[in-house]
């Protein structure tokens, strides 16, 4: 009987060690490892360096010290340069050239990189000229500017980045509208 208990304890320890090794092996770069949390002291005295009377305790699942937590659902998203969140960013891709199917092809390439192609068509569908010479990326709101700049740097080299105006009529969900001009080299 003592032998089977010993086998059980050794087996359980092996499973725990295996889980810890796997957890460390698949840790995302840039994401801090889970830190053990302190347990409450059984003594009746309050902790000397714990939260003060009107102070909330620090969150255990937050980002690095002094930085805000990421919004829900964005913890595992790959980041581009300068903090751009590539995964799940909704883009609209519009062809302003005479090359048939260009917006579709570009949208598919961006989807393979993790973007969401929300609206695809021709530039004149959204109020722009049907014949564009310059590729331009329009961002909807301030935070989307980082996404647009990342795309301009990594995929649309030399493209202009501008704030979306009322003249360009894209779906509300589109964060970055891409109007492809004849200067674009696929």
Question: How would you explain this protein's 3D organization?
Answer:
The protein is of the alpha/beta class and 186 residues long. Helices cover 25% and strands 14% of the residues. It has 3 helices and 5 strands. A 5-stranded mixed beta sheet has the order 2-1-5-3-4, covered by helices on one side. Strand 1, helix 2 and strand 2 form a beta-alpha-beta unit. The longest helix is centred in the first third of the chain and has 24 residues.
Sheet/helix structural class: alpha/beta
- The largest beta-sheet arranges its strands as 2-1-5-3-4
Query: Considering DSSP H and I runs of 4 or more, what fraction of the residues is helical?
Result: 10-25%
Shape label: elongated
Number of helices: 3
| Low-pLDDT segments, ≥5 res | 28-81
Main β-sheet description: 5 strands, mixed
Short description:
25% of the residues lie in helices and 14% in strands. The chain has 186 residues and is an alpha/beta fold.
